[in-house]
Amino acid sequence: MTTASPPETALPDPAEAANVVYNPSLERLREFSRELETTTTFGSPSYVSEHRSRCADRTRTAVDDEFTARDYGHVDDALEYAREHEMICLDRQVGRHPEHSYVCRYYVPKEYGRIALSLAKLLEPAAGDTVTDPDFLTVQVPEWDETAIRVLPDAGVTAVLGSDYTGEAKKSFLRLFMFYAKQNGGLGLHAGSKRVELRTETDDLETVGQLFLGLSATGKSTLTAHGLWLDEPESATMLQDDVCALLPNGSVAGSEGEGLYVKTIGLDPDEQPALHDAVTHDSAVLENVAVADDGTVDFESDVHTSNGRASILRDHLSSAADDIDLETVDQVFFITRNPLMPPVAKLSPAESAAAFMLGESIQTSAGDPSSAGESIRVVGTNPFIIGSKGAEGNRFRALIDDLDVDCFVLNTGHIGAGAKDIGVDDSVTILREIARGTVEWTDDEATGLTIPRSVPDMDIGSFAVPDHVDEYERKVRDLRSERREYLSEFEDLDEAIRDAVY
Q1: Residue 41 forms part of a structural domain
Q2: Are residues 424 and 371 in the same domain?
Q3: Distance CA 359, CA 32 (A)
Q4: Could you give the 3-state DSSP secondary structure of residue 24?
Q5: What string of H, E and C letters represents the secondary structure of 341-353?
Q6: The model scores a pTM over 0.90
Q7: Among 158, 184, 210, which residue terminates a domain?
């Protein structure tokens, strides 16, 4: 079936459709894929999928791409498949915020119950007993003979054809969650959110809200979940790990209320104890992780992919708060792996918007495995933006300016050609002391950046970038030229942001 215009996206009531298993229990979802499961020594299910990363090059949206009859036909095909085949249907909810939460309906063939099982660990059941009109609809047909992801943002519909990767299901809803935040005057962010409570001089507790923007595998999950080595009554709790929405009043709406979809490669119980405990709980669902026939798990092995994943429950992550929304954001951190950047630099509002637009990091196996490790620029470190990217930068600048938010660029990699590593301990110390307000800042002539003069419990002087980079001045000059050229590509980006290249 092929049409030249948007298709009729309604499907029969899943509660009455004979071909649909509607909102089955977690136990039943696991049974549907039992023959594909390897049970780990932790008692959790582990699966190996055919597709092991998102198919970004096969994804098109009706907002950013000129949809042809063939594109609409892909959506028709997915919907027709859901009408005619034995399917699982889940009604879940993305977000809890009273003005920014949505009911999500998900269809997948019964034999792929493992994908529905993972998704059910991430998104909460939809509120209420019945759902008559979901906000978002996704149909995933993994066995389709062509890989195509097609998105109709205004209708809230996504067709995922030819991929059995759980990340496509999850991001089909989070992509739209971010799009609708922008439609309502806010901004969807590929970011983790965190609430830090610190003792003041009068022994009261002060709350500091933090956001972490970064591509997968750059340390976003690790830093968002880290307790910052605080002692009670002080605390640092994770609200969201992946996607949230900055709203005009300064609050930040969370998206995933049930769990997290975390990378597992190199998972270290010493550096990431909270994540390790949750991933090794029997409630986790492992995907493309190295698991021996006897159930032994090897988090160091990339035998299937370096993009191994686990769907974990917030209830079993000790650093996770009960709530998912942040009352007020105070600090935003752009996570980079650029070797010419210091461990941290403080940015002006215009520089912050430039950093948002530059989105400098390294390519990861979650996005393009063939280019993993290469330098990359992704606006907002967000591969899921729908609509004008320049408008996103302008909106970000306006929001942080109005809300008086402090912004920083945080290097979680190394300085120079591996000459000086920046460890998790270093980054955590920086985050804790910035939250406390104990970092002393200085305008550095050598780098042209505002960098720390001193950081308690850290020899920040040993990280001076020019000391670890040969031909530093030339390389920085070339970098700034590249940045200016890159920003010039966005015609609707405010000129003040273009001029703020650091």
Answers
A1: yes
A2: yes
A3: 41
A4: coil
A5: CCCEEEECHHHHH
A6: yes
A7: 184
